[in-house]
Amino acid sequence: MNELILRTVTAVVTFIIILFGIQLFFAGHYYPGGGFIAGLVTAGALVLLLLAFDIQTVKTMVPVNYRMLIGVGLLFALGTGLGGVVFDVPFLTHAHGHVMLPVLGDVSLHTAVLFDLGVYLVVVGVTMTIIETIGEEE
Amino acid sequence: MLNWAIVSPLIAALFVPFLSKYVRSIHTGWFVLPIPVLLFSYFIQHLPLKPYGQTIPWIPSLGMDFQVYMDGLGLLFSLLITGIGSLVVLYSIYYLPKEKEKLGHFYVYLLLFMGAMLGVVLSDNAIVLYLFWELTSFSSFLLIGYWNERDRSRYGAQKSMLITVFGGLSLLGGFLLLSIMSGGTYSIRGWIDMAGAWPEHPLFLPAMLLILLGAFTKSAQFPFYIWLPDAMEAPTPVSAYLHSATMVKAGIYIVARFTPIFAVSPLWVWLVMGVGMATLCWASFHAARQTDLKGLLAYSTVSQLGLIMSLLGAGALAFHGDLSDRRLYTAAVIAAVFHLINHATFKGSLFMAAGIVDHETGTRDIRRLGGLLGIMPVTFTVAVIGSLSMAGIPPFNGFLSKEMFFAAMVQVANADWLSLEVWGALFPVLAWVGSVFTFLYSVLFVGKTFFGAPKPSAWPKQPHEAPAGMLVAPVVLAVLVIGFGLFPNVLSETVIAPAADAVVNGLLRGEGLSVHISHWHGWTTEVWMTIGVIAVGALLYKTFPSWKRVYGAFPEQLSLNRLYDASVRHMEEQSYRLTSAYMTGYVRTYFVYIFSAMMALLIATIALKVDWGLSFRHVAEVGVHELILVLAALAGTVTTVAAKSRLVAIIALGSVGYTVSLFFVLFRAPDLALTQLVIETISVSLFLLCFYHLPKLSRHEKGVRFRLGNAILSLGVGALVSVIALLAYSEKNFASIAQYHIENAYEKAAGKNIVNVILVDFRGFDTLFEICVLAIAALGIYALVKLKAPKGESGKYE
Questions:
Q1: Where does the source fall among the domains of life (chain B) (predicted)?
Q2: pLDDT tens digits, B108-127
């Protein structure tokens, strides 16, 4: 079946969805959004790819082992927590502040974002693992 | 030192398996023999007795220490345990061939038992006593089931385990009650010192009954004696040791030990004396019908234990009455202690003689035995001495203690309190009847085995006299029987007096408890009773074949063994029936149980605890949007429940989910709304996936079947949860802590999305584990789908 329209639209829309997901992720601390919903939206973009193409093609386009992604995400979340312990404060104490960076200038940074990144990666990994696993099964 | 003496057999038991495995040329028993001999010589050094105690801390914070105390009673039992233990080990060396038997097992069990028994009689801490008590039950179980390839052995072992552990647990209950009454101590001596004020205590009676139950089951009293005849499946040295001389006397020991605490209660006197007497008569009557030598000896053990028990009951009368009474009834205690020693000696020798007969002829059935007199003269002599002592014939020691028994029972008949003026006269009569039957079975034991015509054709083996080594132990015991019979006062001041003093707890302190046992008191009542026993017993023996049919008159259906077997079987059957009735295997049944239980508990709690004060002061205004959404959600819910097809139900469920998402929008929860929207989409697609993959065969599109019970239950649960929610809402008494988050989200956590700040910062810990949950779910699905066992091999890993 000729899926030209679907694939063309997908090529355009996927980027918009991924950008929306990234926007949700970074806005999370100030506006609605955050790691969880951002992860789901990103996974949605990947699912759209899956719908438009077949699993093998998507695997070549996005060569990511999603089970690995779950582990990396958990490590981010746990590592953020353990980072507090190194500085002699309780587990999962976040730090934030303004930092002068060479190119970007004055940036407000927060370790909670790293934690949220962990959540994001886990959610993407989990959703994609489930969908891929079920999809590949005969 | 005393503590180590108690545990030394247990330590030695650790080494026995190595010896039996690596030193095959020597019978393991020779390595075991020194232990009881050394212990015996250690204990005998304590004569004349100076009571002393010793404590090794174990769990001091709970008052449980390895506390030992040796007084007359403990010493007497220790001497019996180690003395008879030495002889039994010696006997077993010749009885059990080293080529065929698992000697390592045997001696480990035997040493376990020996240490446990020493622990029982020497412990002053009730909990430690209980531990050792259970260890005796346990090692006895192992010894009875020693030939575990035989059905009867396993049956006997299980029966004795069930009955004695039942008693052991009730003993523990009694100890705990006593500990409560005494304010937390577990020291038995402490209890005895405090006992004066207890008879009025509400726990006094339960404690007494529980402890008596423990003592009666262990000592095979009526009606718990039924395990003992079945315990005769053990090897004969075990029967001689455990089931005649030591373990069955543990209950006697408990009764004697707790006499100073409970004897003031009339019920104690009546129970101990009455049960003992009933056991004596019942078991001696039944002993005469046995055709198995060991069965006969088992019943005779039961009856003799009943005799000792009734004497202890009579001795408890010393705690009533005035000073002269005290002295009179203390004589009963002395008789009990003396008979305890005598019984251990003659019953040990009789069991060993029976074992020799079994060993040499291959049978223990007295219908097949006879005429062994000329073949086994030494065994015959031992058996005659033991039997005559058991029957109470002079000049053996059994005669002396039987005389003292009669004297004590005549005393009981003369007592004029505790209703004994009415019923007391029964006791000498019953004692006399029991003794007549004792005489009968003692004579039967010797007569049927050794006299009459030899029946070589009935014997599996060609008999000859036993080897000398096997005869040593029974001969030593027989010599003791005669020795104690001729010179009883060797024992009286050294062993019996301190033991009796421990039982009555120095009741005669200052009066001097003097024990003098003499053969001849003149023409007293008890002499005439003995003459009567011999005369009537001889007559009964002569006419035994003609009245033997009396035993058939007792209906077999009503025997206690039948009762035991039937109750065990019924318990198993009924438990099985009950379990299969409620464990149906259907999840829906269990849901009914769970929801019913939840409703019952919640309704009961609400009815009992909650004030009915519904208030609506916190309730906000209801707007039009909310109403519309509620109606939409309701419509979706009703469609889901009432849908005829699954597809409709799935779509309706999705609509409910999206409505909830709209609720989140309406109630100003944008994060929740976003997440709910996406998650609902994913779960609906997963539902569709499941629906699509349903197997073709059972894919009938059927509506939900209506069941009234389920409808009532679900309506009930719904109503209940609503009521609880309303009640909880109207009881909302404290301000929420949300204000803190609102105020500090930006100040402290540098974020303006409060929900997200809570999720990653204030309560990040929860989030960490929620992503773990997600990860586990994903990996679980991956494993379920990918790691399926190939078809036909599903049972491979089970």
A1: Bacteria
A2: 999 999 999 999 999 999 99
Residue at which a domain ends, from B503, B520, B541: B541
Cβ–Cβ under 8 Å, residues B77 and B135? no
The answer on pLDDT for B418 being more than 70 is no
What residues in B contact A110, CB-CB < 8 Å?
750-751
Q: Give domain limits for chain A.
A: 3-136
A32 contacts B767? CB cut-off 8 A: no
Distance, in Å, from the CA atom of B716 to the CA atom of B710, rounded to the nearest integer, reads: 10
Query: What does the pLDDT look like over B124-158, one tens digit per residue?
Result: 999 999 999 999 999 999 999 999 899 999 999 99
Enumerate chain B positions whose Cβ falls within 8 A of a Cβ in A: 670-671, 674-675, 678-679, 682, 686, 689, 749-753, 755-757, 759-761, 764-765, 767-768, 771-772, 774-775, 777-779, 781-782, 785-786
Residue B313 near residue B272 (C-beta atoms within 8 A): yes
Across the interface, whether the CB atoms of B670 and A32 are under 8 A apart is answered yes
**A117 CA: distance to closest CA in chain B (Å):** 10
Residue that terminates a domain, selected from B522, B541, B560: B541
Kindly state whether residue B117 falls inside one of the protein's structural domains: no
Alpha-carbon gap: A41 to the closest alpha carbon of chain B (Å):
8
- pLDDT reading at B732 higher than 80: no
Domain that holds residue B535: 277-295+336-541
Does residue B442 fall inside a structural domain? Answer: yes
- Please tell me the distance in Å from A20's CA to the nearest CA on chain B: 13
Q: Please answer yes or no on whether A94 and B777 come within 8 Å at the CB atom.
A: no
Cβ–Cβ below 8 Å for B750 and A96: yes
**Residue B591, Ramachandran bin (φ over 0: left; ψ between -120 and 50: alpha; else beta):** alpha
In tens, the pLDDT along B62-109 reads 888 898 998 889 999 999 999 999 999 999 998 888 888 888 889 999
Q: B7 to chain A nearest CA, in Å?
A: 52
Contact B400, B519 (CB under 8 A): yes
Please state the three-class secondary structure of B216-241 as a single string: HHHCCCCCHHHHHHHHHHCCHHHHHH
| B586 belongs to a structural domain | no
pLDDT band at B701 (very low <50, low <70, confident <90, very high): low
Contact B300, B438 (CB under 8 A): yes
- The DSSP-derived string for A12-81 is HHHHHHHHHHHHHHHHTTTSS--HHHHHHHHHHHHHHHHHHS-HHHHHHHS---HHHHHHHHHHHHHHHH
Q: What is the pLDDT of residue B798?
A: 42
Q: How many domains does chain B have?
A: 2
Nearest CA in chain B to A93: B761
* Binding-site residues on chain A for chain B (CB distance < 8 A): 24, 27-37, 40-41, 44, 67, 70-71, 73-74, 77-78, 81, 91-92, 94, 96, 108, 110, 112, 115-116, 118-119, 122-123, 125-127, 129-130, 133-134, 137
The four Cα atoms A112, A117, A118, A121 give a dihedral, to 10 degrees, of: 160
Number of C-beta neighbours around residue B409 at 10 A: 30
Q: pLDDT category, B508, cuts 50, 70, 90?
A: low
What is the interface size between A and B, counted as CB pairs within 8 Å? 122
